[in-house]
Design a protein that fits this description.
Elements: H1 3-25, H2 32-53, H3 58-75, E1 77-78, E2 83-84, H4 86-103, H5 107-139
Antiparallel strand pairs: 1-2
């Protein structure tokens, strides 16, 4: 058994779960399971490409990005006066990239990206809600 592959797949699920938990806390449709599956699937596509061709195919990576774009488009909803789901779609896209980096054994890249995604979703999210929304509401 290839224990590094087990580690890579498990790490992809774990990283997806970390981001997915934040989305669950915020009550978003795509959460723990969705983010974990996107990261796992992306990692798996890269691992299969490595196993079959000895290298991560650029075409395989583009197909992952395209497939996740399709999923992302499904979470974006236009309402009468606003659009919802854009951050979720972007998060899924980034999670797919993290899965790709884990599959390609670029662990430092994936860890730094996970930290930055967390900062964006948590810290920037709090800033938006507290500073920017309050300012916009006062201007109305």
């Amino acid at each position: 058994m290839d224990w590094e592959v087990v580690f890579q797949l498990t790490l992809a699920v774990f990283f997806g779960a970390l981001v997915g938990i934040e989305r669950e806390i915020k009550g978003k449709e795509a959460g723990l399971q969705t983010y974990s599956l996107v990261s796992l699937g992306s990692c798996l596509f890269v691992l299969v490409g490595l196993k079959l061709f000895g290298a991560a195919s650029g075409a395989a990576i583009l197909l992952v990005a395209t497939g996740v774009g399709f999923i992302g488009a499904g979470v974006i909803m236009h309402r009468e006066d606003h659009t919802e789901g854009i951050t979720t779609a972007a998060g899924l896209w980034c999670m797919a990239a993290i899965g790709v980096t884990i599959g390609a054994r670029l662990y430092l890249f994936s860890l730094v990206a996970l930290i930055l995604i967390s900062v964006i979703l948590i810290v920037f999210g709090m800033f938006e809600r507290k500073a920017l929304k309050t300012k916009n509401e006062k201007n109305l």
